[in-house]
Amino acid sequence: MALPTINPTTTKAWEALISHYENIKNVHLKDLFKQNPDRAQTFSTVWNDFYIDYSKNRIDQTTKTLLLDLAKEVKLEDAIQHYFSGSSINETEERAVLHTALRAPSNKNILVADKNVVPEVTAVKEKIKQFTDQVISGSLTGYTGKAFTDIVNIGIGGSDLGPAMITESLEFYKNHLKLHFISNVDGDHVHQNLKNLDPETTLFVVVSKTFSTQETLSNATTARNWFTDKAPKTEVGKHFVAVSSNIPNVTAFGIEEENIFPLWDWVGGRFSLWSAVGLSISLSVGYENFEALLEGAHEMDEHFKTAPFEDNIPVLLGMLSIWYNNFFKAESEAIIPYSQYLHRLPAYLQQGIMESNGKSVDRSGNKINYQTGTIIWGEPGTNAQHAFFQLIHQGTKIIPAEFIGFKKSLFNDQDHQDKLMANFFAQTEALMNGKTEAEVQEELKSKNLSAQKLKQLVPFKIFEGNKPTTTVLIEKLTPKNLGALVSMYEQRIFVQGVVWNIFSYDQWGVELGKQLATKILNEINDTTISEHDSSTKTLLKQYLN
Ligand code: F6P
């Protein structure tokens, strides 16, 4: 069964949103708050440990109704059914999209081509658990009998960003094992990481769904050579395991079948951290924490599947993003976690969001005439405040921003936590209210400035405000809440892809560069430059000289 193919711009709701936008585009958030004293209650939702406040967005009740009408008109409800039930919604690759099955309870029945996939998922989880326990306890050792001390994850894209982001986010929960991530084909990256490692106590986890990715195979080969330079060749099997769906390629590389953790074609790379791709996560924080991560994601999946659209967090956030992208013509969105642990979250979401929804052909194969694919960027607060917040506050662009914060800190340093959260709340308030000319005048009065200086300064000190933000306030950074947070974004990607009538689960756009790089590498190896534009040709000559 295929997803519906409805051009969103042909819906009644889209047309209504265009004219509604004209009514609301100049309305100030401050006035919306004055008009409705209960606005915070009207536009917020509570779910488990999450409180989502979307009241500081440039919407009113009509906006919300129309956005949800749009979701209904493009048949989002049907699409959700297809997605969770294992239909081949990744049509261009003829695959189901079932990362949700990876975190479903073991008694579920989820069919792909008439076969229940849950037993296989459960078996791989058991393998992850056993392996994790053995490595952490030291009962599984390297070739000289010493316990492992260092884990090196070799992978790129979804085979790196997910495990890297989660292990850094859960650093508080980690054990004695030291984690290293090698992704870039830049040789300095792999050699820098290998430099201080001890082959006797290092375990390599080579993660590649296809096991054909140039970067990963090059890095894995370099790591294996490094190992066999120092240790007997016959011991590779004790120090290299793989996560892949391409068993023949892995065994050809020299990793034994029993050391392969499989995954399936219905798990997309950027949605794979819940599979054996998350082996490094499990090794780093223990299997129980890995399972708690999955449990949190599953609870969010259930919320997404069953909650009415009015209170459905991924639906609301996805539709808000569409509101800014397609009606306000916002060029980008910022994601600002107020937690240093989450410093890799924006980079992780860049792949999730931009590789999924950066498409310009619709589900019928036609060129699209509206904007898709939001541009995501961000850094943790408060650091971000001292870097790019100037532009959000006083620049010319509208940048909807999501603020993610936790009520409790992990080390319980209340002084720091209060300062952090004071900034967290202050920023969304400041972005909304801004500062008027009268307020600036009043503030400058006490400074004893000359009338001329005062007049000169005023325009620079005015903040227009009316900058939209959404606040995601979570009880505490736990594995379970982190799982729910990541799932929230995954489901939001789905919502936006359905509305934009695009295929969110393929990534043909990364192919062209790969093909050209292979051709150019051959030319570099042969030192013969073939036909290129004059720019590329000259650059290659410069390099070869
Ligand atoms: O860059 C494209 C991509 O296919 C990503 O989608 C994926 O996460 C990454 O490459 C790595 O792929 P693999 O796990 O097959 O090595």
Automatic annotation (TrEMBL):
A cellular component term, taken from the record's GO annotations: cytosol
This protein's record includes keyword Isomerase: yes
EC number: 5.3.1.9
Enzyme class at the top of the EC tree: isomerase
Catalytic residues, chain numbering: 355 (proton donor), 386, 514
Pathway in which this enzyme or protein is active: Carbohydrate biosynthesis; gluconeogenesis; Carbohydrate degradation; glycolysis; D-glyceraldehyde 3-phosphate and glycerone phosphate from D-glucose: step 2/4
Swiss-Prot/TrEMBL catalytic activity: alpha-D-glucose 6-phosphate = beta-D-fructose 6-phosphate
Gene3D superfamilies: 1.10.1390.10, Glucose-6-phosphate isomerase like protein, domain 1
GO molecular function term, any single one: glucose-6-phosphate isomerase activity
GO biological processes: gluconeogenesis; glucose 6-phosphate metabolic process; glycolytic process
HAMAP family xref list: G6P_isomerase
Biological role: Catalyzes the reversible isomerization of glucose-6-phosphate to fructose-6-phosphate.
Family to which this protein belongs: Belongs to the GPI family.
The name this protein goes by in its record: Glucose-6-phosphate isomerase
Organism: Aquimarina aggregata
Classification of source organism: Bacteria, Pseudomonadati, Bacteroidota, Flavobacteriia, Flavobacteriales
